[in-house]
Automatic annotation (TrEMBL):
<dbReference type="GO" id="GO:0009691">
    <property type="term" value="P:cytokinin biosynthetic process"/>
</dbReference>
<comment type="similarity">
    <text>Belongs to the LOG family.</text>
</comment>
<dbReference type="InterPro" id="IPR005269">
    <property type="entry name" value="LOG"/>
</dbReference>
<keyword id="KW-0378">Hydrolase</keyword>
<dbReference type="GO" id="GO:0005829">
    <property type="term" value="C:cytosol"/>
</dbReference>
<dbReference type="Pfam" id="PF03641">
    <property type="entry name" value="Lysine_decarbox"/>
</dbReference>
<keyword id="KW-0203">Cytokinin biosynthesis</keyword>
<protein>
    <recommendedName>
        <fullName>Cytokinin riboside 5'-monophosphate phosphoribohydrolase</fullName>
        <ecNumber>3.2.2.n1</ecNumber>
    </recommendedName>
</protein>
<dbReference type="GO" id="GO:0016799">
    <property type="term" value="F:hydrolase activity, hydrolyzing N-glycosyl compounds"/>
</dbReference>
<dbReference type="InterPro" id="IPR031100">
    <property type="entry name" value="LOG_fam"/>
</dbReference>
Length: 190
């Protein structure tokens, strides 16, 4: 594993622990010599994790559609900023550059990015590790939803093995480093 794509909120959230965890994760990423790939914003948890990596001398690549430059306020201190035309192009480029994914707390955009890479893993487009930094149990409801989808027959039991979770950044990185993709059952049964 050489690079991690981070999905995270463009806001800091209500609790200081969210930002503290983003800072701790960024520091770990840099100290392990990993490259951060993310959406290119200087605001929120996105900016916090990027700033923590940069502060430790790590490499940060931001990918941002030109149309978001005014709304998300592009980070000007990155190792590299890649400009793209659309959100679809942004996600494709981030996935191309990344060996793994971590979702920090965030809103609808974070959920959308997370579920896309989960779906890609489910249908075999990639076998990259996917982690949830579950600060203050933020992702507990999402984990319950995915578990419920398996219980109700809409997902397979193996799909839960795609998601690595921890509230501890170091432990989550260890899980991603030792990840072995689950054997997926045939999705389309008759």
């Amino acid at each position: 594993m050489q690079s991690i794509c981070i999905f995270a909120g463009s806001k800091l959230g209500k609790h200081l622990e969210y930002q503290e965890s983003a800072n701790a994760l960024g520091k770990l990423i840099a100290n392990k010599g990993l490259r951060l790939i993310y959406g290119g914003s200087k605001t929120g948890l996105m900016g916090a994790v990027a700033n923590a990596v940069l502060k430790e001398g790590g490499q940060v690549i931001g990918v941002m559609p030109k149309g978001l430059f005014s709304g998300e306020t592009v980070h000007n201190g990155l190792s590299q900023l890649i400009e793209v035309e659309s959100m679809h192009e942004r996600k494709a480029k981030m996935s191309e550059l990344a060996d793994s994914y971590i979702a920090l707390p965030g809103g609808l955009g974070t959920f959308e990015e997370l579920f896309e890479v989960l779906c890609w893993a489910q249908i075999g487009i990639h076998q990259k590790p996917i982690g949830l930094l579950n600060v203050k149990g933020y992702y507990d409801p999402l984990i319950q939803l995915v578990t419920y989808s398996a219980e109700e027959g809409f997902s397979g039991d193996a799909h839960m093995g795609i998601i690595q979770t921890s509230n501890n950044p170091d432990q989550l990185l260890q899980k991603l480093e030792t990840y072995s993709p689950p054997v997926m059952e045939t999705k389309w049964k008759s």
